[in-house]
Amino acid sequence: EPDGTVSIRTGFTEMGQGLFTVQLQTLCEETGIDPKLVRVVTDTRYALDCAQTTGSRGTLLGCQAIRAACVEFKKDLAKVNGDLKKLAGKEWYGEFIVKDTHPLGYTGPNVKTHITYGFATQVVILDDDGRLKKVIAAHDVGKVMNPVLLAGQIEGSIHMGLGYALTEELQLKDGYIASKDLRALGILRAKDMPEVECIFIEEHEPDGPYGAKGVGEIGLVPTAPAVAGALYKYDGVRRTKLPMKDSPAAKAILGKK
Q1: Cα–Cα distance for residue pair 183/159, rounded to 1 Å
Q2: 63-79 and 19-31 are packed helices; what angle lies between their axes, rounded to 10 degrees?
Q3: pLDDT value of position 192
Q4: Residue 52 to residue 49: CA distance in whole angstroms
Q5: How far is the C-alpha of 43 from the C-alpha of 189, rounded, in Å?
Q6: 3 state SS of 40
Q7: Helices (H), ranges, the chain
Q8: For residue 53, which of 63, 65, 40, 62 has the smallest C-alpha distance?
C-alpha cells in the first residue's frame, strides 16, 4: 500500500476462528515484516477462487497460498533493502492447488477424499453424582501455529459439543422456531462448563504450512460420544438419542432433580 503497509487479500472469511491471525503470522514468518504493518482483508475485487470457508480448510490452503506468494515478494523486498514504500502498488499472487484427492464415487485403489485428516480423542469425566467434572481433549494438529487460538478453538468446540450432547434442542412449532432466546435453546452457561484439559499432538503434516493442519470440525466430533460413554459407565444406560436430557449430567445443568 502507499503508506508502506502490506495487505493480504484473501477470498476466505474470518468468522472469529482466528484465520486472519495465522495468515498474518505466516506472512511475517516468511518475510520478517513487523506484524503491525500487515492487515488481512476479505477481498471481492479479485477472482480469488478459495471456495467455502468451512471447518479446517482455511489454515492449510490459505497459509500455503501466502507462502507461495512470498517467494517473489521476498525477492523484491531484498532489492529495495526492505523499504516497503518503494514497492507501493505491487502485487504478488500465490495459490496452493491440491491434485491428488479423489471425487465421490471413485472406486480405484488408495482412495484419498481429503487433503489431510484429523485425529482426536476426548474423555469426559463425571463426579460421584454423575455431573460433568472434566473433559480431556487430545488432538493431532500437525503443528501448533498459535497456542491461544488453538486452545480457544478446542474449548469452544467442547462447549458446543456438551450442549449438543446434553441440553441443546432447537424445537419447532408449526414450522417456526419455538425457542425465543439463547437460554431457551439450552446453551451451557459459563458456570456449567467443566474443566477442560487440552493435549496437542504435533505429528507433521507434509501438505500443511510448517506441518500444520486445521482444527475445525474435529474439535466437536468426539464430544457427544464421549459424554454418552461416560454416562454409560456411570449408570449402565445406553442412550441413543440427543440431547440426553434424562441423564444426571443434563439434569444438573437444567436445574432438574
Answers
A1: 14
A2: 30
A3: 95
A4: 9
A5: 36
A6: strand
A7: 19-31, 57, 63-79, 147-166, 223-235, 248-254
A8: 62
> What's the angle, vertex CA 50, arms to CA 47 and CA 53, rounded to 5?
130
Kindly list the averaged pLDDT for each block of 10 residues, start to end, along the chain of length 257: 95 89 97 96 82 83 96 97 96 92 91 90 98 98 95 95 95 88 88 97 95 90 97 97 97 85
C-alpha cell at 5: 503497509
Say if residue 104 is exposed, middle or buried (CB neighbours under 10 Å; 0-12, 13-18, 19+).
exposed
Please spell the DSSP secondary structure of 104-149, one letter per residue: TT--SSS---SS---EEEEEEEE-TTS-EEEEEEEEE-SS-S-HHH
**Separation CA 38–CA 17 (nearest Å):** 19
Nearest alpha-carbon partner for 247 in 176, 183, 167: 167
* Angle, vertex CA 63, rays to CA 61 and CA 67, nearest 5: 115
pLDDT at 251: 96
pTM equals: 0.89
